[in-house]
């Protein structure tokens, strides 16, 4: 088994298991228990837990402190890091800080624009972009160098991930964009929530045609709908999200009290279908503020129990 | 050109509400082209101020002058002999002109009549949009002649982000996604494969980040 970091997620993927990751959004306050409670609900059903970094540009408890909370519980966190809020000094510094606590996974993102959040009047940074953040972490890890060229005393050992959105426009560069992230050094991908399975399968075919599925571990992203309203919101209001009409209809066609169950059904069926797609190496289950449903989704999808790898 | 917009009249009145005699100084360059601070706009502002004062039962004497440029000593010198007669100056130049005027005439209060917006183009009559942020290290050769620094809301050098939809930016459906434009143009040029070239981390020290900038040309210095 060829692994480059102490990451448990990397080991599970390298061993050929379908990996399962999930994510927790930190609270809008200083209560660290909010993180540990969410993690408690899902910890036995996933291999690693992402912590989002001020997602949708709404100010929250920071992802770095949150992953430390998880690490102290003995869990395997994925530190999400956006380039929106920090320059290259702060990014490198936080990477070292995370590594000092034994955080071994990072997800490199650019981040939603601040106009979506609670501080639309704030400045953004974008000193580097997500692809350049991938390069930065790889440079720090593999060459033991800072961007400025100096040596790092004890380089961070991080398994490097990024997001991919097969549904954003223009579709024709969605695979080249993945190739670009791979060229930058990404090792695992967590995709945008998949509702349009045909389009995702087409993207995966193009990924395979270029052999990219052998160069990066692709975890398919899924998010269960809690309600028909959420499906409509995701379809119409969330940038880069592709929710086909028939999925919205399927949610709307059941009575309101049955909609959560239907949302879970759709999610489980999607995972089962995506398991058959060559090149899909696992799942990223994003149950937004619905973490308690992750165990059910994982179990019903035949992904439980999780492999024991130390 | 530098594109600007006039400040709200109430804000301008606030600057000079205690004055009786002021000078309005327009600029014949960029702000004339974008209809913000040329001779005509100076006239319009002068009338608006006088009327506003009149409504309050006060009188305001307003002198109007429009200079060829406010970013060159030689034209700013043209008001040297008259400026002391006024309690305040409102400059309808961009922020550059306002400052240069203020630097030159230390004893007269100078106020901005415009909000300076960006370096941009006239897309069509009445529509201006940004094209350059003056980063000091032009990358247009790598991006098919379209600048992601000034035209991508996240100034991504390796875009587009996941929010690009139907060619538009995630922050505003009216706004073109710069990376869609870059990709479209690469296609037109038959160079779509260039998209996969990684653009390296940028040296921002030639941008605002490196502090106020200055160019010195020894061959031209007097």
Describe the structure in brief:
Chain A is α/β, with parallel strands linked by helices and 310 residues long.
Number of helices of chain B: 7
Number of strands of chain A: 8
Domain module tally of chain A: 1
CATH architecture of chain A: Alpha-Beta Barrel
Q: How far is it from the N-terminal to the C-terminal residue of chain A, by CA?
A: 13 Å
CATH architecture designation of the largest domain in chain B: 3-Layer(aba) Sandwich
State the order of secondary-structure elements of chain B, H for helix, E for strand. EHEHHEHEHEEEHEEH
Number-wise, the strands of chain B total 9
CATH class of the largest domain in chain B: Alpha Beta
Could you tell me the strand content of chain B as a percent range?
15-25%
Would you mind describing this structure in some detail?
The complex is a heterodimer of chains A (310) and B (222). With 310 residues, chain A is of the alpha/beta class. Chain A has helices at 8-14, 33-42, 63-72, 88-100, 130-143, 174-184, 197-209, 228-237, 245-252, 259-275, 294-300; strands spanning 19-24, 48-51, 77-82, 105-109, 159-164, 188-193, 217-222, 280-285. An 8-stranded parallel barrel of chain A has the order 1-2-3-4-5-6-7-8, surrounded by 8 helices. In chain A, helix 8 (228-237) packs antiparallel against helix 9 (245-252), helix 9 (245-252) packs antiparallel against helix 10 and helix 10 (259-275) packs across helix 11 (294-300). Chain B is of the alpha/beta class. The two termini of chain B are 27 Å apart. Chain A binds chain B through residues 84, 88, 110-113, 115-116, 124, 126-132, 135-136, 147, 163, 165, 168-170, 172-173, 176-177, 179-180, 183-184, 192, 239-240, and chain B through 153-167, 170-171, 177, 180, 183-184, 192, 195-196, 198, 200-202, 204.
């Amino acid at each position: 088994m060829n692994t480059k970091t102490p990451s448990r997620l990397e080991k599970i993927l390298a061993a050929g298991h379908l990996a399962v990751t999930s994510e927790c959004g930190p609270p809008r306050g200083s209560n660290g228990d909010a993180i540990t409670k969410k993690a408690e609900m899902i910890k036995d059903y996933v291999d690693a837990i992402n912590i989002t970094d001020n997602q949708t540009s709404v100010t929250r408890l920071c992802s770095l402190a949150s992953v430390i909370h998880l690490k102290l519980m003995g869990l395997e966190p994925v530190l999400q890091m956006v380039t929106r809020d920090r320059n290259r000094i702060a990014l490198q510094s936080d990477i070292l800080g995370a590594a000092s606590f034994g955080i071994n996974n990072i997800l490199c993102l650019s981040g939603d624009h601040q106009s979506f959040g609670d501080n639309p009047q704030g400045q953004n940074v974008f000193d580097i972009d997500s692809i350049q953040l991938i390069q930065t972490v790889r440079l720090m890890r593999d060459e033991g160098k800072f961007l400025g060229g100096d040596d790092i005393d004890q380089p961070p050992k991080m398994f490097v991930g990024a997001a991919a959105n097969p549904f954003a426009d223009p579709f024709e560069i969605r695979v080249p964009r993945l190739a670009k992230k791979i060229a930058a050094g990404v090792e695992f991908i967590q995709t945008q929530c998949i509702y349009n399975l045909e389009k995702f399968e087409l993207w995966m075919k193009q990924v395979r045609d270029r052999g990219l599925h052998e160069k990066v571990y692709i975890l398919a992203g899924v998010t269960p709908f809690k309600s028909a309203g959420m499906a409509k919101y995701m379809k119409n209001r969330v940038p880069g999200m592709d929710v086909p009409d028939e999925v919205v209809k399927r949610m709307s066609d059941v009575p309101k009290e049955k909609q959560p169950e239907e949302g879970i059904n759709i999610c489980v069926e999607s995972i089962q279908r995506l398991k058959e797609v060559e090149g899909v190496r696992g799942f990223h289950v994003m149950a937004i503020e619905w973490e308690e449903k992750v165990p059910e989704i994982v179990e019903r999808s035949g992904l439980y129990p999780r492999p024991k790898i130390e | 050109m530098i594109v600007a917009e006039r400040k709200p009249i109430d804000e301008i009145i606030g600057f000079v509400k205690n004055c009786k005699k002021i000078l309005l100084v327009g600029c014949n360059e960029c702000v004339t082209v974008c209809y913000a601070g040329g001779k005509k706009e100076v006239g319009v502002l002068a009338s608006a101020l006088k009327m506003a004062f009149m409504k309050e039962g006060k009188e305001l004497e307003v002198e109007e002058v429009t200079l060829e440029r406010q970013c060159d000593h030689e034209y700013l010198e043209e008001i040297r002999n008259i400026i002391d007669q006024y309690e305040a100056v409102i400059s309808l130049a961009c922020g550059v002109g306002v400052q240069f005027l203020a630097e030159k005439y230390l004893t007269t209060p100078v106020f901005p009549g415009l909000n300076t917006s960006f370096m941009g183009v006239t897309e069509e009559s009445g529509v201006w949009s940004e094209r350059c942020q003056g980063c000091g290290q032009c990358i247009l050769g790598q991006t098919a002649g379209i600048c992601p620094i000034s035209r991508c809301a996240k100034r991504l050098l390796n875009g587009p982000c996941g929010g690009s939809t139907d060619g538009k930016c995630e922050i505003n459906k009216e706004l073109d996604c710069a990376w869609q434009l870059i990709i479209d143009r690469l296609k037109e040029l038959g160079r779509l494969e260039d998209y996969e070239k990684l653009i390296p981390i940028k040296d921002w020290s030639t941008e605002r980040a490196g502090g106020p900038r200055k160019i010195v040309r020894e061959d031209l210095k007097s």
